[in-house]
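Running this now, will post back.
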Amino acid sequence: MDVIAESKIKSSLRELYPFSEEQLGQFTKRMSLAHLQKKKPLLEPGRVCSHLTFLARGSLRHYTLGGNAELTINFFTEGQWVTDIDSFLAQEPSKNYIKALEDSEVASISLQDIHEMMDNYPSFRMLNGLIAKMVIPVTHLASISRESPDVRYRELLSKHPDWITRFPQMHIASYLGMTSETLSRVRARIS
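Update: finished.
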């Protein structure tokens, strides 16, 4: 495993719990490092998401197809844990895509290895908290149907200002539940 990626993973896990260096070493030893080129999938529909993945470098987009359009569920950037939570927890085929928006470096650990870590080191049950945070916030989904486009865009600006310049406008619009044209009008009004 890459030393920088390993350090980032350990730091992220220490935010959850004061794991010992031995425990963290056992965890990262079970992870496999991969490089994803831009537009390459981490997950595609029909495949079971059997890994929890740490994004060490780059960015990913989690999306699904709705009718004729791609609907962005979430974006992931450096230092975040990634999975398709429904597929991961139920161990059923995914209905979603997770693809690299930029050349990315990811480290993954299997669900089986996570269970073994929890059996060997009960403190790793703290990972359940990390996994629970990965459930798409109901507040975001509710805001799409409840809030105006201007409010949704302002909320995005306050929570993730870097996304505006980092990700394509069509993906941002999809995440906000609006068309690219509507997003352009909203941006013009708010600027």
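Residues 137-191 form one domain. More later if anyone needs it.
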